[in-house]
Amino acid sequence: MGDQPAEEAPSGADKSIIKSGGGGGGEEVEVRKGPWTMEEDLILINYIANHGEGVWNNLARSAGLKRTGKSCRLRWLNYLRPDVRRGNITPEEHLLILDLHARWGNRWSKIAKQLPGRTDNEIKNFWRTRIQKKVKDGESGECASQMIAADDAGGSCSHGGAGCLDGVMTTAQPNFPTYPNAVNSAGAHGHEAYAPAYSTPESSTSETYWNFEDFWPMQS
DNA sequence: AAGTGGGTCAACCGCGTACCA
DNA sequence: CTGGTACGCGGTTGACCCACT
């Protein structure tokens, strides 16, 4: 993998200079922002496999990643962890999210703990893009709860299919980290990269996409 | 065929909390 | 007890793709 040079500045990637902490050191460190590259992921995964997670700022420095500890932590927790489940929210999960949100509100991390393999970020996005919108629509049409309940039951409400989730939460996808590099070669946006690979298995072996499950055994 | 708007997702930012010296 | 540092969480933004006009 090392033969493919990591693009120092993939589209959207940004660099900035920050002062490293420690009070008085004043050492300036270049920090990368934006989408993660495959090489960065490899470095992070390798480092955590060897040293374990935690102490993120130190980890970022030691691993040679030009990222903040925060960024490393986020990337690991949301995408690189082996137990992260990517893909569509199942009806059961949907129901659970609704229930837990009704109980706890926007305590996404708390809710995520009840959904093995799901991340707070994923649940948060799901809520904002699917449920919140639907509730909003329902406010004008007075049947938000009906719509949600109908969706959970695999049915539909009088609002029709505009916000219907039925079609999108039936299958779970395996882990497929995404990269801006893949965008360049495949002409697809990062988060879309795994979708065609998933729906058309014959294309999943393309060098453009790489299966996370293929990758993990390498770490041990 | 081209342009526009909406939807989705990944990543960043700021704040609060916990821990340690 | 106080100050500093790191971590974790929730909110927000930016970029891209797809569907519709």
TrEMBL record:
InterPro entries to which the protein is assigned, alphabetical: EOBI/EOBII-like_plant, Homeodomain-like_sf, Myb_dom, SANT/Myb
Annotated localization: Nucleus
Keywords: DNA-binding, Nucleus, Repeat, Transcription, Transcription regulation
GO cellular component: nucleus
Keyword Transcription regulation: yes
Keyword Iron: no
GO MF terms, alphabetically ordered: DNA-binding transcription factor activity; sequence-specific DNA binding
Region (Disordered), start-end ranges: 1-29
Residues in Myb-like domain copies: 28-80, 81-131
Main subcellular localisation: nucleus
Name this polypeptide is given: Transcription factor MYB21
Species in which this protein is naturally found: Platanthera zijinensis
Gene (UniProt): MYB21
